[in-house]
Amino acid sequence: MASAIILENGANEEQVLRTLAQIQGAGIADTILIGTMRPRQPGTVCSFIAENKMSVASAMRQAALIAKSNMLLFVDARIDLSSQAHAALSSFLQSGSQPLFAYAALTSKAGRTSFPSTMTKSSVVEMIGSQELWPLAMVATTKTAMREMSDLDGSNSQEVLAQFMMRQIAQGTTIESMSVDVSMNSEESTASLNLGLSSRARCLRTIVSHSNIEELFPKHPWGEYQMESAAASYHMVAASFIRYGDTTSALEALEVGDQLAPSPRSLALKGLIALARGEVLGAVANMVSSLQQYELRRDGANYPSISPENMEGINSKLRAGLEALHERNNDKALEHFAEAVFTFDPFYKDCGISDPKALIN
Q1: Which of 119, 142, 256, 333 is most buried per CB count within 10 Å?
Q2: pLDDT tens across 316-356, in order?
């Protein structure tokens, strides 16, 4: 048996009652509702935690503490369970399985959404950036696992569960599928499962904080270039933070990388951070310094090796940038210098940064 923790998440009372009935009918030991208002319908049997009196993460931890069963089932109240899904859920609950983290796949007009079949530390950084919808409307775990995550936090239940999943991946837990497909009650509810950029940044910070950096980026030649590989890994982390708009965490990652090995990538990324903060002159200065360092590394003797194929295009952009500076057109100069850097090294586009102007808030 399992204890169900229903997350109201803006669902109206009718939807909450419907979800309660469906989940209780699947074979549940007890039910706890986290929401804004206790259901008023007579005969409704469930414990209630008011989410407006504490953070959502605290409410979820409290629900886990008072649950009667060790197995927990977190359920978004906005889901719709088909008869087939209800039968699959009943079968899952009756199996006696107690996974540390299992989720139900999501079905919508766009099709079926699930996480990659194999999620490991070596693939999770890329997944954080590429996974559009995060199917976390129904998650099974254990009270024991939740008890170990006392510092979990998040702006909403979706993010709390996402960070919980990051912690489980960091511990080497296999992320399982429950063989249950659920759908949401509206397109708006489905869209809410698209994790926001700030939430993705916090998930990235969680996985980086609880993992060894070489486990996240094992493809680097750690045996031959240990310090350089570590620095390159932190550059990739910083680039991701920049994509998610978290320039503070990006700078922290670059500070770690700078202590390990110097790199023109660090200078260019600092330029992108300055740009995102509206500091155009600082961005220009860092891009120019980066280009100078790239020029010194053109022989490919360092790691990562830099071997640009279009030096003519790079020099053309460099000249155009200098002309723009002479004309005191800093924005245009930055545009040309950034294009030169991006042509010199495909790293930035590989990290999902193809247009520096898109970073400006």
Answers
A1: 333
A2: 999 999 999 999 999 999 999 999 999 999 999 999 998 87
Task: Supply the CATH number for residue 98's domain.
Answer: 3.90.550.10
Statement to judge: residues 309 and 328 lie in one domain: yes
| Three-class SS state of 16 | helix
**Are residue 293 and residue 278 in the same domain, yes or no?**
yes
Q: Are residues 199 and 217 in the same domain?
A: no
Are residues 45 and 185 both part of a single domain? yes
DSSP 144-180: HHHHT-TT---SSHHHHHHHHHHHHHHTT---EEEEE
Q: Are 73 and 26 in contact (CB under 8 A)?
A: no
- Position 116, amino acid: P
Tell me the H-state helices in 67-137. 83-94, 121-130
Q: Assess whether the previous peptide bond of 304 is cis (omega < 30° from 0).
A: yes
- Tokens of residue 299, six digits: 């022989």
Residue 195 and residue 98 share a domain: yes
Does 239 lie in the same domain as 186?
no
pLDDT classification of 300: cutoffs 50, 70, 90: low
147's tokens: 């008890």
Helix axes 157-170, 197-209, angle to 10 degrees: 30
For the entire predicted model, the pTM comes to: 0.93
Task: List the domain range (segments joined by +) for residue 332.
Answer: 213-359
Residue 70 neighbours by CB distance under 10 Å: 16
Count the alpha carbons within 13 Å of 120 in the hemisphere toward its beta carbon.
7
Terminal-to-terminal C-alpha distance of the chain? 49
Kindly report the CATH number assigned to the domain that includes residue 340.
Answer: 1.25.40
What angle in degrees, to the nearest 10, is found between the helix axes of 330-344 and 264-276? 140
